[in-house]
Fold this sequence. Notes:
Layout: H1 2-47, H2 63-68, E1 73-74, E2 79-83, H3 89-96, E3 102-104, H4 120-126, E4 129-130, E5 135-139, H5 149-156, E6 161-166, H6 169-183, H7 190-194, E7 195-197, E8 202-203, H8 208-211, H9 215-222, E9 231-235, H10 236-241, H11 243-253, E10 265-268, E11 273-276, H12 301-322
Parallel strand pairs: 2-5, 2-6, 3-5, 6-9
Antiparallel strand pairs: 1-4, 7-8, 10-11
Helix pairs in contact: 9-12
Binding site for 3'-phosphoadenylyl sulfate: 86-90, 167, 175, 292-296
Membrane topology: Single-pass type II membrane protein
Protein name: Sulfotransferase
Amino acid sequence: MGQRLSRRPDALRRNALLLAVMLCLWLYLVYSCAAGELQGLAPLLRRAPAAEEPSAAPEPAGPLSSFLNGAGSKRLPQAIIIGVKKGGTRALLEFLRVHPDVRAVGAEPHFFDRGYDRGLAWYRDLMPRTLDGQITMEKTPSYFVTKEAPARISAMSKGTKLIVVVRDPVTRAISDYTQTLSKRPDIPTFESLTFKNRTTGLIDTSWSAIQIGIYAKHLENWLLYFPIGQILFVSGERLITDPAGELGRVQDFLGLKRIITDKHFYFNKTKGFPCLKKAEGSSKPHCLGKTKGRTHPNIDQEVVQRLREFYRPFNMKFYQMTGHDFGWD
């Protein structure tokens, strides 16, 4: 009797141990099967989207991640420098690109005068990527004298801000001629191109170097599509003598904080132009290239005076239209 009682606890322990081992084996088998099934389903789950969201779009990246990834989006320009040729448009664009909230195309797109048939999607694709709060810009000086450009830009966006850099039309014409002369040294003299007939003193307004400077005539075309308050007129002369002052006006016009100030410029006596102490994305000083600031040829002063007389009434009308006296007379 005593022996049977003493063996019972041993039997109970063996049975408990056996049950524990069996339970462990069972749990292991269940876990293995479940893991195997999930592993087999994983490729299918990766290939097939959820049935209720067959084309779910990914979450848009935030501004910070977009910036770090060089992302952002391409937008049609909210502001365009539309003119004028040899007025100082390149200088203005290079100065503006120092501002962290301005993103601009480097090359001139010539969309609204030469490439309009390519379509707005093509034009948008030329633009740099921008983040929220940044302004997309481009500059093509020939827009100002292109008859179709105002209607085309208005059709893109009636709210587009326009900037025109203007310069004494006589000096501008000589600068225009100087540029052409550097490419084609065999062209006729400035004096011979200026007149239809030198004897009568009749100015040849079909010559583009003369025609571009009739600012009032071109502006009339733009005012058919844009209010005067949507166009900023920048003085090409003051862009040289007071770049920070003119850039202040431009930044105000674009609704930007005045970040570009006197501290960004130094005057290069050799070129006769202001230069940037630090260009966009660089820690080095930057001046405009060799094509800017060319030495003008000597022009017969009688011809210069005749041109000043020719432009005077057009200048006066331009002053009245813009409400600003540029002091060219």
